[in-house]
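Quick one: structure for this chain?
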Amino acid sequence: MAVSIAIESPLQDEVKTLVAALDAHLAPLAPAEFNFGLDIDEMAASDTTVFVARNGDGLAVGVGALKDIGLYQGQHLGEIKRMYTDPAVRGQRTGASLLDAIESRARALGIERLVLETGVGEGLAAAVRLYENHGFTECGVVLDYPESDYSRFFEKKLSA
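Got it. Here's what it folds into:
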């Protein structure tokens, strides 16, 4: 199944439904204080670009966001947030297409390094494989996240 990826507003009901599904997936995987997702209003902020994957029927089947952190420790940094694909389309490269679009946008913005925080355990194993398959490598704690047994951090350098 081919999907189309476009920059869209997170304020749409379909996007809100995907974000709610992501939150429901993450809730049992870690205590609430270790779930660091942006809410819909934060996703709508001017420093965040939201990408929506739509199937051939135009239905939203995936979402991902790029938060432009700006200059951080001498580098233009971007953070990947709120990556989620509907379980019905998993394994069909929807997540990969979202990551490709996010990375392309990051490069266009002059972002030098992408980072992300994700959880641990089998419930997020597919997400970790996706990131690793796209050239992300595990790194230490990023930004102002706490170090914990509930988080893993990844990075990808976009420029030398």
